[in-house]
Amino acid sequence: MIIVLKPGTSDEERENIVIRIEEAGLSPHVLMGKERVVIAVIGDERALQQQTLSAIPGVEKALPILSPYKLVSREFKKENTVIDVDGVKIGGNKIVMMAGPCSVETKDLLSGIAGEIKAGGATVLRGGAFKPRTSPYSFQGLGEEGLEFLAEAKKQTGLPIITEVMDPRDMPMMMKYADIIQIGARNMQNFRLLAEVGAHNKPVMLKRGLSATIKEFLLSAEYIMSAGNDQVMLCERGIRTFETATRNTLDLSAVPVLKQLTHLPVIIDPSHAVGKTPLIPSMAKAAVAAGADGLMIEVHSNPAEAFCDGDQAMLPNDFKSLVSELKRIAVAVDRDI
Amino acid sequence: MIIVLKPGTSDEERENIVIRIEEAGLSPHVLMGKERVVIAVIGDERALQQQTLSAIPGVEKALPILSPYKLVSREFKKENTVIDVDGVKIGGNKIVMMAGPCSVETKDLLSGIAGEIKAGGATVLRGGAFKPRTSPYSFQGLGEEGLEFLAEAKKQTGLPIITEVMDPRDMPMMMKYADIIQIGARNMQNFRLLAEVGAHNKPVMLKRGLSATIKEFLLSAEYIMSAGNDQVMLCERGIRTFETATRNTLDLSAVPVLKQLTHLPVIIDPSHAVGKTPLIPSMAKAAVAAGADGLMIEVHSNPAEAFCDGDQAMLPNDFKSLVSELKRIAVAVDRDI
Amino acid sequence: MIIVLKPGTSDEERENIVIRIEEAGLSPHVLMGKERVVIAVIGDERALQQQTLSAIPGVEKALPILSPYKLVSREFKKENTVIDVDGVKIGGNKIVMMAGPCSVETKDLLSGIAGEIKAGGATVLRGGAFKPRTSPYSFQGLGEEGLEFLAEAKKQTGLPIITEVMDPRDMPMMMKYADIIQIGARNMQNFRLLAEVGAHNKPVMLKRGLSATIKEFLLSAEYIMSAGNDQVMLCERGIRTFETATRNTLDLSAVPVLKQLTHLPVIIDPSHAVGKTPLIPSMAKAAVAAGADGLMIEVHSNPAEAFCDGDQAMLPNDFKSLVSELKRIAVAVDRDI
Amino acid sequence: MIIVLKPGTSDEERENIVIRIEEAGLSPHVLMGKERVVIAVIGDERALQQQTLSAIPGVEKALPILSPYKLVSREFKKENTVIDVDGVKIGGNKIVMMAGPCSVETKDLLSGIAGEIKAGGATVLRGGAFKPRTSPYSFQGLGEEGLEFLAEAKKQTGLPIITEVMDPRDMPMMMKYADIIQIGARNMQNFRLLAEVGAHNKPVMLKRGLSATIKEFLLSAEYIMSAGNDQVMLCERGIRTFETATRNTLDLSAVPVLKQLTHLPVIIDPSHAVGKTPLIPSMAKAAVAAGADGLMIEVHSNPAEAFCDGDQAMLPNDFKSLVSELKRIAVAVDRDI
User: Fold this and answer.
1) Helix-strand-coil split of chain A, %, nearest 5
2) B246, C16, D114, D195: which is deepest, by most CB within 10 A?
3) How far is the alpha carbon of C287 from chain B, nearest alpha carbon, in Å?
4) 8 Å CB contact of A286 and D260
5) Average pLDDT, stretch C163-191?
């Protein structure tokens, strides 16, 4: 921690800051510069990060040196975390393909899509039974019935299930049906939900919030890990910017940034990021080339009749073609799909 | 709804779109332009807004004409909504001053602050017992004990209480202690929480999400109102932008925009918006001049020792001076504090 | 300057960094922390700010302590700069009202508007002869003829003229006609234009770029001042965010932030910020309450026929009413219009 | 163009709008909906796009149907534009590799780097002689001497030169030395510079502004093309967002979006986008996979001593390795480097 003092700070104020640092069990080093006095703090600054140093009289700003997260960091754990979901390894050399409809609609439709995406190369089935919709008048998901349809599709295809939880009260139900629990972008800082999911022993995919920084994203993952669950994967799905040509802006540089900072697997959801079917293949390819550990892609056999997000759903056949193209790129970056 | 067709769309595709509109009970009017064919749809387009028209073959884009929200809109209810909280009217000519510490810390400290802000001109006491913190290692609030301290402060000062709910499971506790339930910015699209709060009969203050558009903000309010609770006030507290000189960017133009679109009261929280105490008075004054119905301001008697957000807390005396300055501006815009 | 070393940096690498700092004439202080080694640099760090310290092997990051600008800073000059434009003082207690059409259209129309805004309370006439338009097919301004019309309007009303320069080659023409030269938002980082304007002795109003940080804004002002021209005023006119309910987002907190950091006058342009006439009065009032030194407002006698930006033009009568309301707020903040 | 009327608009106001449309030579179709009256306009709406329809009494909003640009659009010219720069084809199947230092520093250094990048696989040499720097105290480039060094490096290596123009007055000099003229991000809406470059017969690379939408980007390209120069290539180099983990946020989805909308070649500059050397390879690979027609990458033989942007410079050897990896990905998407 570096504490920069305001110009004209009195000796008494400075002494006061020094005492406060010492009280926190850390060592202050006062450096008298020409234009500013700076106090460098030696010791575990995380104790101080929780305090409001900048509200102390005489302090201009406090600059932290260390990252505020620990368990998720690459410094804490050097090797990549690999999560095993019913035999599907996520975070290893093989890139995982998650696919399926935005929301679960009918049993037959879901089973049909599940069969087709499996044939097309998917190894995890996605589908929402609880849907976070911007408008209260939009389709909100089938609820537990949707989870049952997912279970049925799993029985038929063997594909493990990823589905979203929106409410801590639904966790018992989720534990019964889901193989991976998804925390959606809008709930990335629903801290009670993070804590609840962290208290269960089940893989979690945490989606980045629409306007979450990488640091906040990792701190939300830290909530889950610090509650006891270390099977966490991260999903970039587009951030909110000024651009309206796409639904969101896919921040693909999050892949190498996260790979530096954390040992957790990184998944890319190009469907939500761009929001328009014709743009998805290009971004899916880019994600594989950039080093993503997996993709999550929306597939629907009849997008124009989809209950939600038909704009961004691929047809099963187009998904199949895409996967074969992705395999070539995976090989070119020494990976596998 | 206006549907723009792609250039080169076939007669069959066009006919198909027309049939789909008619099936939804609406009337299509086909207009053959030079460069594009456009279909204007007459009728209640909200039926179509839930569908994925742009996924139908031949459709380039679908432009909605009407806003997707209804109950919150000024068209639905012309006169301003005024909410009565224990005799404090919010949304009328008198501007409400909510103040207090970021989080409830100790009983004595809270009661002390409550007494001081009352003397300084506040009419509602704020204080968090459940705190949404970016880091799991930060102070998370006292929980129910904090609510008890708020109740005690209320008993001593008579000030009604506004406090934040983070979890639908806490609603019974909230109903017992809170006079206004706050939904924080990070939970603006926690739709299950909105529905839960909507199902209770208690005033709600909904804070705008960090990257929520005005339209999304109003749709979240619509969630609460459509669930049965019409005592909703809206709070702008800064949005996330590229600028780092302030904690967030206060979007003060949200005041006149919301006043046009909705009948609900509009509160401004300058403390969270700017995040630095010296900047707050200027923004508080601006908010009153812009037409806000109330302010929410963080006050702490010892900011440097605050458990959270000491950076943006005003001293009680400074708050008192500010209120007397605000009164002059209120008079200049024909209002009252 | 604080230099944070990567974990595991070798002694040799560290020594290398120390030597480099000493070579720049500064004093390094090496602090061996538990998790990181930090080097605090004593001396004028601006020498180092131009170097790429973070590209030196072993450096994790370099944190500057001082601001990179000097002449524009409040530390360099404590008292407010007051600019005298033909007797109109900008930056003093009296708030300046600049008004007029977006672009100069015809001589008669301009003279008519000039007369009306003068009667309504304006003390500076705005009008563009060279217009930066997003599309090449939009009206680009009358050029020198427009400047002549401005001169004519000035002759009739006595109002000094503010008009925009887009090209360094036009400076001789500008010197002839303009009393204040405006640098538009799109040219805030047109550094050659800044240098050219800096080399002339004429007041300048620099508009903040659509996505410029406050720091970059001040550095652009520093370009003008360091070239020799100290008659610079700053204008906030809305920044680009994700919100589309307004044309841009007015960052009104820029007023108190700039007042802390710089001695230069701060003007607010609510017209471009919100882009919709009905929203302008509210933001104009807020700007006065926030502490702005002046306003720039678009006024047109026939907005629906305006060659540009009719959406955001006020009628002369509405402008007059607004000024009388603003006067009341000015009084409430101990200022004058 | 679709014109939506306000609720409660009078017959006279509506008639007035109809007349105005007819006067512009277009055909209005009035559609009386339940909640709104809508007027669909048949004819070339570009005539109306320049007018301020929304300022006409009774108009709520005007929704354009057509894009405001023409010459740059894929509808205007279906086949890809391929630009020939001294035999290097840009926009064809072969992906172009532009590389070199941020700024030209010394003759020997430049020639050395040029030789190395050529050996590493580059076909165009980049280097700035005029540098747009945020601070007036940063190195501003060598000016014409820098251009001479570029000419020397070209003579030695045969690599054509891309270099930035900042001032219309420098165009004669640029015509003498440059093979591709670069318009930097900060000058994307320097409309006078665009017009000047458009009036010359020389390939241009236009960089996207930090906060420019795709639509604005294409309109700036339209400025150049409408002035007579059709040898325009577009370069995405990162946009400004709230994220600070990278210098800017690379909007890679701009590649498929631009490929849909325009026939012009699309180049990606990962160096400026991410601003940190270790992140560049990942984004370069992603760009090739996404379908970019070329890359621009900063290479310097001694980044820690670079006059600018050493943070984001690759070593020549690392560049060489990267190109060999990119070649594999190019093959996987049926292209060539």
Assistant:
1) 40, 20, 40
2) D114
3) 6
4) no
5) 97
* pTM greater than 0.90: yes
Give the number of other Cβ atoms within 10 Å of residue D25's Cβ: 10
Nearest to A302 by CA among A108, A97, A107, A113: A113
Give the chain D residue whose CA is nearest to the CA of B249.
D242
Spell out which residues of chain B touch residue D7, defining contact as CB-CB under 8 Å.
Answer: 75
Q: Is the dihedral of CA A123, A128, A133, A139 positive or negative?
A: positive
Question: What ranges in chain A are assigned the alpha helix state H?
Answer: 11-23, 46-49, 107-120, 144-157, 171-177, 191-198, 214-226, 254-261, 270-274, 280-290, 316-332
Where residue C145 falls among pLDDT bands split at 50, 70, 90? very high
Sorted by sequence, the CB contacts under 8 Å of residue B94 that are 6+ apart come out as B335, B336, B337
C78 contacts chain A (CB < 8 A): no
What is the CA C57 to chain-centroid distance, rounded?
39
Instruction: Please give the full DSSP string across A190-224, using - where no structure is assigned.
Output: -HHHHHHHHTS-S-EEEEPPTT--HHHHHHHHHHH
List all residues 6 or more positions away from B242 whose beta carbon is below 8 Å from its beta carbon.
Answer: C211, C213, C239, D240, D241, D242
- Tokens, residue D200: 């010359």
Q: Is A66 within 8 Å of C32 when comparing Cβ atoms?
A: no
DSSP, residue by residue, B24-77: TT-EEEEEE-SS-EEEEEES-THHHHTS-GGGSTTEEEEE--S-S--TTBTTT-
Say yes or no: D288 contacts chain A, CB-CB below 8 A: yes
What span, in angstroms and rounded, lies between the C-alpha atoms of A33 and C44?
Answer: 9
Low-confidence ranges of chain A (pLDDT < 50): none
B55/A133 touch (CB, cutoff 8 Å), yes or no = no
**Residue B108 neighbours by CB under 8 Å, 6+ apart:** none
Size of interface B-C (CB pairs under 8 A): 136
- Chain D environment of B76 (Cβ under 8 Å): none
pLDDT tens digits, residue range C70-126?
A: 999 999 999 999 999 999 999 999 999 999 999 999 999 999 999 999 999 999 999
Q: Do B2 and D40 touch (CB under 8 A)?
A: yes
Spell out the alpha helix ranges (H) of chain D. Answer: 11-23, 46-49, 107-120, 144-157, 171-177, 191-198, 214-226, 254-261, 270-274, 280-290, 316-332
Q: Can you read off the two tokens belonging to residue A69?
A: 């997260």
Nearest-neighbour CA in chain C from B285: distance (Å): 5
Nearest to D285 among A274, A279, A289 (CB): A289
Name residues whose C-beta falls within 8 Å of residue A326's C-beta, 6 or more positions apart in sequence.
Answer: A95, A97, A284, A285, A288, A295, A337
C66:A36 CB<8 A: yes
Residue B52 above 80 pLDDT?
no
d(CA C45, CA C47): 5
**Which domains occur in chain B, in start order?**
2-63 (3.30.70.1140), 83-332 (3.20.20.70)
**Which tens digit of pLDDT belongs to each residue from C10-61?**
999 999 999 988 888 888 989 888 788 989 888 877 767 666 777 888 898 8
In this predicted structure, what is the pLDDT of residue D49?
64
Whether C33 and A75 lie within 8 Å, measured CB to CB: no
Strand partners, D41: D28
Residues in chain A closer than 8 A to B191 (CB atoms): 132-133, 136, 140, 166, 186
Residue A263 CA: distances (Å) to CA of A81, A90, C5 = 6, 12, 21
Q: Phi then psi for C294, rounded to 5 degrees?
A: -175, 165
Burial degree of B245 (CB within 10 A; 0-12, 13-18, 19+): buried
pLDDT-based confidence at D51, cuts 50/70/90?
low
Q: Is D294 helix (H, G, I), strand (E, B) or coil?
A: strand
Q: Which two tokens stand for residue A15?
A: 């002494």
| Chain C residues in contact with D190 (beta carbon < 8 A) | 166, 186-187, 190
Put simply, whether B305 touches D (Cβ < 8 Å) is no
